[in-house]
Specification:
six-stranded mixed β-sheet, 18 strands, six-stranded antiparallel β-sheet, single chain, about 35% helix, Apoptosis, Tumor Necrosis Factor Receptor Associated Protein 2, Chain A, 17 helices, alpha+beta, Serine Threonine Protein Phosphatase 5, Tetratricopeptide repeat, 3 domains
Length: about 475
């Protein structure tokens, strides 16, 4: 029967720097020239657990400090070397290099006292493929031990058990805070993905949990900002929030630039930010100037692309980690704006709505566009499901509003249009003029002059490939 000694250290001894080590776990070799274990090696070895005392003090070479520490406890466990070697590359190398089959039946491992329970569970798993522990903390300890001793099957088993336990914010953050070697393991990816999805869903509406989200660690805020389903006003708001979080957690400019450049900046979808906010990115000291120029230029090129090309770029990123060209579920729908200064101040605004978004408006919902600007003033479009003026049926309405900003007045000519089948050209639906003051809105309650049921019907002429294409032209009257 072979024996393996496992030296169990006190917590304060961080690592033994012995000459013969593998992945931070030392093993003793009594042979001057170790030989590989032959195929006919005996089936059983012994595992001796030894608990070591305080670390030696004084002016001693740290490479030998473990030899001088006091052994507190030794525990011998009889195990089958072929079983362990078959399930763990670590143990295969240990048995191959750490003992001579005919002369040595002991191999020694050194571990911390806190690792003993997890190691015993791991050894039991390698025999039975089950674990007796069920608590998240204990399972994490076994997971860490399985990673350390390269038992991938146990890592997968622990990951599956942890995924099946009720997830909390605390446990999700704990899973995302595992050492990088564990996080990178394929066996743990389903667990970390589940943790990220939990946090993204929990903090889907950042506005409701601002303080909580601001207090999240880096791994937590990354999980939230990476989500496509983030319910936020616009990507401008994502940018502002990421900047606020970085300034809170990294007060030093150099560290903040590093974290924004290497981690958080990748999660901001700059192509969906407004041009006004992109101008501020160029002058923001928190970003490296070279990075700021790069993301703004990339965003402007994206905005200038045709819708088909934009969709193609988004599709290419469908399975990537950083999805800068994929549109989120913004509270304020993005618009495309063309501005003219001469011969008159004018802008043309394009707003596209998906059929599902329109369906969700019934019976009294509203969708607001992102702000756009004309003559220095902010305007927005809003799509409504409302009753017609005779209150006899629901219908689709479109309105134009001016944001609150002082008491300035603007006389504006405006025109609403929509693409229709079969020509797929924009057709004018409503023209008007209005003198705006801050906070006022004007529009048409029944833009298409039909009931809601006809507007949403399968054969509706207003949905082209599942999208409603709206256009508004605004001109400041002289």
């Amino acid at each position: 029967m072979h024996l393996v000694d496992v030296l169990v250290q006190r917590e304060q001894i961080l690592q033994c720097n012995m000459p013969d080590t593998e992945d931070g776990v030392a093993y003793e070799n009594q042979d001057d020239e170790p030989e590989a274990m032959v195929e006919e090696s005996p089936a059983d070895v012994g595992l001796n657990l030894k608990q070591c005392g305080e670390e030696a003090t004084g002016n001693i070479d740290p490479a030998w400090s473990m030899d001088l520490s006091t052994v507190l406890r030794v525990k011998t466990v009889h195990i089958s070397s072929p079983i362990l070697a078959a399930k763990s590359p670590f143990f295969y190398k240990l048995f191959s290099n750490g003992m001579r089959e005919s002369e040595q039946r002991y191999v020694t491992l050194r571990i911390h006292a806190s690792e003993e329970a997890a190691l015993m569970e791991l050894l039991n798993f390698m025999y039975s493929s089950t674990l007796s522990t069920t608590t998240p903390t204990a399972l994490l300890d076994v997971l860490m031990a399985a990673d350390k001793f390269e038992v991938a099957s146990c890592m997968r088993y622990c990951s599956r058990l942890l995924r099946n336990l009720p997830m909390t914010c605390e446990s999700a953050l704990l899973y995302l805070d595992l050492p990088s070697s564990v996080l990178m393991a394929d066996a743990v990816q389903p667990l970390t993905d589940t943790a990220k999805q939990f946090l993204a869903a929990r903090y889907k509406d950042i506005s409701k949990f601002q303080e909580e989200v601001l207090n999240l660690p880096l791994a937590g805020i990354e999980a939230v900002l990476a989500s496509d389903d983030l319910q936020i006003a616009s990507e401008d708001a994502v940018y502002d929030f990421a900047l606020k979080w970085a300034r809170t957690h990294y007060p030093k400019l150099e560290e903040r630039r590093e974290i924004l450049g290497s981690r958080l900046g990748r999660l901001i979808r700059f192509p969906y930010m407004t041009c006004r906010k992109l101008k501020k990115v160029l002058t923001c000291n928190d970003f490296d100037p070279e990075l700021a120029s790069k993301v703004v230029l990339e965003s402007l090129f994206f905005k200038a692309e045709t819708p088909y090309r934009q969709r193609a770029l988004a599709a290419e990123e469908a399975n990537s980690t950083y999805r800068r060209f994929v549109e989120r579920a913004y509270k304020y729908r993005p618009v495309k704006v063309v501005e003219f200064e001469l011969p008159r101040q004018q802008c043309v605004v394009y707003l596209d709505l998906k059929r599902e978004e329109c369906a969700h408006l019934f019976p009294a919902g509203r969708i607001y566009s992102q702000a756009f600007h004309l003559g220095g003033q902010g305007f927005f479009l809003s799509a409504h499901c409302n009753m017609d003026q005779q209150s006899s049926f629901h219908c689709f309405g479109l309105f134009l509003g001016m944001q609150e900003k002082g008491s300035v007045s603007f006389a504006v000519d405006y025109e609403f249009a929509a693409r229709i089948k079969p020509t797929e050209e924009y057709v004018s639906k409503y023209k008007g003029n209005y003198t705006f003051t801050g906070g006022k809105a004007v529009g048409y309650r029944n833009l298409f002059g039909i009931p809601w049921t006809a507007f949403m019907a399968d054969d509706s002429i207003y949905f082209i490939n599942g999208n409603l294409h709206l256009r508004a032209e605004l001109t400041i009257r002289q």
